[in-house]
Amino acid sequence: xxxxxxxxxxxxxxxxxxxxxxxxxxxxxxxxxxGSFRGIYGIELSDDGLSIKKGAKxxxxxxxxxEGTYIHKKDGYYYFFASIGxxxxxxxxxxxxxxxxxKKLFGPYVDKSxxxxxxxxxxxxIHKNDAxxxxxxxxEIVTDKAGNDWMFYHAVSTKxxxxxxxxxxxxxxxxxxxxxxxxxxxxxxxRPEM
Length: 194
Fold this sequence. Notes:
- By secondary structure, the chain is mainly β.
- It has one helix spanning 10-13, and strands spanning 22-26, 29-36, 39-44, 59-62, 67-74, 77-84, 96-102, 123-126, 132-136, 141-143, 149-157, 164-174, 177-179.
- The chain has one domain: Tachylectin-2, Chain A.
- Strands 9, 10, 11, 12 and 13 form a five-stranded antiparallel β-sheet that branches. A four-stranded antiparallel β-sheet has the order 1-2-3-4, with no helix packed on it.
- Strand 11 and strand 12 (164-174) form a beta hairpin.
C-alpha cells in the first residue's frame, strides 16, 4: 500500500464525524459514502479515486440514525444497509442492521411503505435475540457457488460477552427485499457452497 495522504477532514467537507467510508464503483464512476449519526453523505471521486472529482456535489443520502454504510446493487435496485443504535456497550449494545432501497445510487432510499431514510425510516434486517445482541455493521454481501447471498456483520454473544464476534447469515430475497430468517442471528444454519 502507498500512502497518498488524506482525502478530506470533517471540517473541510462540512460533515461531522466523517467515519465508516464505503467505496463503490458504478457505471464506470467511483464514489465514496460515509458519515455517522450526523447524516450519511456521498460524493463522486476523481477517475483515479484518490480525490473528490472537481465540481462534484456533496449529497446527503440518509438521515441521522445511521452509521456503517454499505450499498449493494441487485436487480435494478440499490440497497442501502446501515446500523442504528449503539455498537460497543457489551450486553447493553442496541446495534441493529437496517435497509432501504432506491432505483438511483444517491436515492431517495425508502422503506417498504415509501418513507425516506433521509427521515430515518427503514426496514429492520437483523435485530438481537437471546444468543446475540448488538447485531450490526455489516460488510460486503458475498455470493457462493450455488448463487446464495451471505452477509457478514458483528454481534456480542450473550454467553461470552467479552467482545464482538463475526457473524454470517444467508440473505434471502423476496419481492425485491432482503431478509434474514427470523430477522435475527442464526444459532445453526447451512453453510455456503464454496
